[in-house]
Amino acid sequence: MYIRNFEDLQVWQKAHELVKLIYTDKNFNIPAHEKYGLESQLKRAAISVPANIAEGCRRQHEKELVQFLSVALGSLSEVRYYLILCKDIGYISETKYRNLHNKCIELDKMLDRLVHK
After folding, report:
1. What is the pLDDT of residues 5-26, one digit of tens each?
2. By CB atoms within 10 Å of each CB, which of 33, 55, 80, 101 scores lowest?
3. Nearest to residue 55, comparing CAs of 71, 40, 44?
4. Is the pTM of this model over 0.70?
5. CA 48, 54, 55: angle at the middle one, nearest 5?
6. How far is residue 85's CA from residue 28's CA, in Å, rounded to a whole number?
7. Helices (H), 37-93
Protein backbone atom coordinates (compact mmCIF):
# COMPACT_ATOMS: atom_id res chain seq x y z
CA MET A 1 0.00 0.00 0.00
CA TYR A 2 1.58 3.24 -1.16
CA ILE A 3 -0.05 6.48 -0.07
CA ARG A 4 1.05 9.47 -2.09
CA ASN A 5 -0.60 12.30 -0.17
CA PHE A 6 -0.77 11.90 3.61
CA GLU A 7 -2.93 15.03 3.89
CA ASP A 8 -5.82 13.14 2.28
CA LEU A 9 -5.82 10.54 5.06
CA GLN A 10 -8.56 11.09 7.61
CA VAL A 11 -6.33 9.62 10.33
CA TRP A 12 -3.62 12.21 9.59
CA GLN A 13 -6.21 15.01 9.59
CA LYS A 14 -7.51 13.93 13.00
CA ALA A 15 -3.98 13.59 14.38
CA HIS A 16 -3.17 17.08 13.11
CA GLU A 17 -6.31 18.44 14.80
CA LEU A 18 -5.25 16.82 18.09
CA VAL A 19 -1.85 18.52 17.86
CA LYS A 20 -3.49 21.89 17.26
CA LEU A 21 -5.74 21.37 20.29
CA ILE A 22 -2.79 20.48 22.49
CA TYR A 23 -0.67 23.37 21.23
CA THR A 24 -3.38 26.03 21.43
CA ASP A 25 -5.62 24.79 24.22
CA LYS A 26 -5.87 27.42 26.94
CA ASN A 27 -7.60 24.93 29.24
CA PHE A 28 -4.27 23.40 30.22
CA ASN A 29 -3.06 24.95 33.42
CA ILE A 30 0.53 23.73 33.24
CA PRO A 31 2.85 25.81 35.43
CA ALA A 32 5.76 27.70 33.88
CA HIS A 33 8.32 25.45 35.57
CA GLU A 34 6.91 22.53 33.48
CA LYS A 35 7.48 24.32 30.16
CA TYR A 36 10.55 22.22 29.39
CA GLY A 37 9.29 19.16 31.25
CA LEU A 38 5.77 17.82 31.03
CA GLU A 39 4.48 20.45 28.58
CA SER A 40 7.35 19.86 26.19
CA GLN A 41 7.00 16.08 26.40
CA LEU A 42 3.25 16.24 25.74
CA LYS A 43 3.71 18.47 22.71
CA ARG A 44 6.59 16.41 21.30
CA ALA A 45 4.62 13.17 21.64
CA ALA A 46 1.52 14.74 20.07
CA ILE A 47 3.37 16.16 17.07
CA SER A 48 5.10 12.83 16.55
CA VAL A 49 1.80 11.15 15.65
CA PRO A 50 0.96 13.01 12.41
CA ALA A 51 4.66 13.44 11.59
CA ASN A 52 5.22 9.66 11.59
CA ILE A 53 2.06 9.09 9.55
CA ALA A 54 3.34 11.61 7.00
CA GLU A 55 6.83 10.14 6.86
CA GLY A 56 5.57 6.58 6.58
CA CYS A 57 3.33 7.47 3.65
CA ARG A 58 6.31 8.45 1.54
CA ARG A 59 8.30 5.29 2.19
CA GLN A 60 8.79 2.86 -0.68
CA HIS A 61 7.82 -0.34 1.10
CA GLU A 62 4.68 -1.31 2.95
CA LYS A 63 6.80 -2.70 5.79
CA GLU A 64 8.29 0.76 6.36
CA LEU A 65 4.84 2.36 6.39
CA VAL A 66 3.70 -0.11 9.03
CA GLN A 67 6.81 0.64 11.09
CA PHE A 68 6.10 4.40 11.06
CA LEU A 69 2.43 3.82 11.86
CA SER A 70 3.53 1.69 14.80
CA VAL A 71 5.75 4.53 16.02
CA ALA A 72 2.74 6.86 15.69
CA LEU A 73 0.70 4.44 17.83
CA GLY A 74 3.44 4.46 20.46
CA SER A 75 3.55 8.25 20.50
CA LEU A 76 -0.23 8.35 20.81
CA SER A 77 -0.02 6.09 23.88
CA GLU A 78 2.52 8.50 25.31
CA VAL A 79 0.10 11.41 24.72
CA ARG A 80 -2.64 9.46 26.48
CA TYR A 81 -0.41 8.96 29.52
CA TYR A 82 0.56 12.64 29.70
CA LEU A 83 -3.11 13.59 29.52
CA ILE A 84 -3.90 11.22 32.40
CA LEU A 85 -1.06 12.75 34.40
CA CYS A 86 -2.22 16.31 33.62
CA LYS A 87 -5.72 15.39 34.80
CA ASP A 88 -4.53 13.64 37.94
CA ILE A 89 -2.36 16.54 39.09
CA GLY A 90 -4.90 19.19 38.20
CA TYR A 91 -3.35 20.69 35.06
CA ILE A 92 -6.47 19.93 32.98
CA SER A 93 -10.15 19.64 33.81
CA GLU A 94 -11.95 16.30 33.73
CA THR A 95 -14.15 17.56 30.88
CA LYS A 96 -11.23 18.68 28.72
CA TYR A 97 -9.38 15.45 29.54
CA ARG A 98 -12.38 13.36 28.42
CA ASN A 99 -12.62 15.27 25.15
CA LEU A 100 -8.92 14.82 24.32
CA HIS A 101 -8.90 11.22 25.58
CA ASN A 102 -11.83 10.34 23.31
CA LYS A 103 -10.01 11.85 20.34
CA CYS A 104 -6.97 9.73 21.21
CA ILE A 105 -9.06 6.55 21.40
CA GLU A 106 -10.61 7.29 18.01
CA LEU A 107 -7.15 7.90 16.51
CA ASP A 108 -5.82 4.72 18.09
CA LYS A 109 -8.56 2.65 16.44
CA MET A 110 -8.03 4.32 13.08
CA LEU A 111 -4.26 3.80 13.18
CA ASP A 112 -4.70 0.20 14.28
CA ARG A 113 -7.05 -0.49 11.34
CA LEU A 114 -4.57 1.11 8.94
CA VAL A 115 -1.71 -0.99 10.29
CA HIS A 116 -3.70 -4.20 9.83
CA LYS A 117 -5.03 -3.26 6.36
Report:
1. 899 999 999 999 999 999 986 7
2. 33
3. 71
4. yes
5. 85
6. 12
7. 38-57, 62-88
